[in-house]
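PROTEIN DATA CARD
Card holder: Metallo-beta-lactamase domain-containing protein
Chain length: 319
Origin: Geodermatophilus aquaeductus
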Amino acid sequence: MSSPDVPGAIDRATDPAADPGARSGTSQVDTNPYRGLLPDLPAYACTNCGHWQRWPAPGPQVCPVCADVRNALPEHGFEFVTDKQADELVTGFWRPAPVDGVTEFGTEPRFGLDSRGWVIESDIGLVGFECAPWYTADMLAELRRMADAHGGFPVLASSHVHGYGALWQLQQELEPRVVCVNVHDLTWTKAFRVTWPADDVLALAPDLTLHRTGGHFAGHSVLHDSRRGILFCGDSLKVDLSPDGEPVALSAHKAFHAQIPLSHGELREMLAVVAELDFEVVATPFEMVPGVTTDHVVHLVQRLLSGPPDAAPVALDEL
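Structure generated from the sequence above:
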């Protein structure tokens, strides 16, 4: 695995996250890296999965995420909504996550895959990882208030396309200087502009490091919060919960809906990354779950490597 890139260790003149004035949005008249670099086309969201596309009117005919093997096709055909229609369909919420220093943003009722946006307090300001399906005016106002209180919002990143949500909207509205996904997953990013394509390892902020695990997608990446002991695991794991919200089983998939397992080579690549990271909490694009640890995940992957590929959940008490 390659050595980590560390934004804070390079020349501040070229580091997009290093200028406090840029983080607060006060040092330049126009700090938005999105403007003028992508076509000014309407945004449309797939009602089945929530994936946003920019497309000429009257809109797209097919959602590439739903058409991919890793997602389910809509039973009654594709339907797309505009940003104004999405704003009328949902209300937003935010609440403290189970671990201090992290805030969860989401919408209700369920829209698309119903992803969550995690906003993490760091030494350089707020770091956003994954995104909600849409951000209402109240949600955006809260994010701006938080950014003012915590030194700006310099970094926005995601594990893979199933966690993007309305990432394009946050880039447009909040103007983070760094928008980061893995270089292997750029094909899914036509709705926004990636300003920092990540390789295998990238330190987004002190104690917040992005690691490529591959597997589910070629560029699938996890974010390790070493200060809080959290693995923002994307879809490298699926956690089954009891009715009271306790974790009861773990599984890993190439494609959850089709129940396609990861190959042994993909599992070995994932194990080499995750075994080196200490955590006691995992956060998928949909929930944060205390009580799932490094040992649980290592034992899951070792078990999956011991026989034919399998996507079935394994009880946590067997790990």
